[in-house]
Design a protein that fits this description.
By secondary structure, the chain is mainly alpha-helical. Helices cover 75% and strands 0% of the residues.
C-alpha cells in the first residue's frame, strides 16, 4: 500500500481510509475499468454495422491500448491473480465482444460470435501482456503485429 500511495502521490493513510487492503483497492480498480469498458462498447454499437475487418480490428485492439495508456495501473493488473469476480468480468467482456461481432456481421450466428469473441479476447489479452513487457520504443510494432494476427483471424472467422 505504501508503494501504491507513493506512486499515486498520496499518503498511505488516505488509501486505508477508503480501502482496507490491496485486494480491495485492486477490486475497486477492476470494477471501475469494467464500467469504462461498458461505456466504450455501448458507444461503439452504432458504428459497427458495415465496418471493414480492418476497422473492426482498429477498434478491438486500439481501444484497449488507448485504455492502457490512459490508465497506467491497468497493465500491472493483468499479472495479478484472478479474484472471485474475475471470471464474471471476463465473461461480460467476452459477451460484449460477441455482441459487437454480431452487430457488425448480423449473419454471424450467436454461437459463432461467442467462439470468435473468446479468441478475440485472448488475442487482445496477449497483445496487452506483451505490450506491457515491451520497451516503449517497440510497442507500436508489437501492436501492429497483433493487428495482422487479429485481422487474419477475423477475415477467416467472418468468412471474408
Amino acid at each position: 500500500m505504501c508503494a501504491i500511495a507513493q506512486r499515486g502521490g498520496s499518503c498511505v493513510g488516505s488509501l486505508y481510509q477508503f480501502f482496507p487492503n490491496k485486494e480491495a483497492l485492486v477490486e475497486a480498480l477492476r470494477t471501475t475499468y469494467v464500467e469504462e469498458h461498458r461505456r466504450f462498447w455501448s458507444s461503439l454499437r452504432t458504428e459497427l454495422p458495415g465496418l471493414s475487418v480492418q476497422q473492426l480490428v482498429e477498434h478491438l485492439l486500439g481501444y484497449p491500448i488507448a485504455f492502457a495508456t490512459k490508465h497506467p495501473a491497468f497493465l500491472p493488473l493483468l499479472d495479478l491473480p484472478p479474484s472471485d469476480r474475475s471470471q464474471k468480468r471476463r465473461a461480460l467482456i467476452r459477451d460484449r465482444i460477441a455482441e459487437a461481432l454480431h452487430t457488425a456481421r448480423p449473419a454471424l450466428s450467436r454461437a459463432k460470435a461467442m467462439r470468435a469473441a473468446a479468441v478475440v479476447q485472448q488475442i487482445t489479452r496477449g497483445c496487452l501482456v506483451l505490450y506491457a513487457r515491451t520497451e516503449a520504443r517497440d510497442r507500436r510494432a508489437i501492436v501492429d503485429e497483433f493487428k495482422i494476427a487479429l485481422g487474419s483471424y477475423l477475415r477467416a472467422a467472418l468468412g471474408e
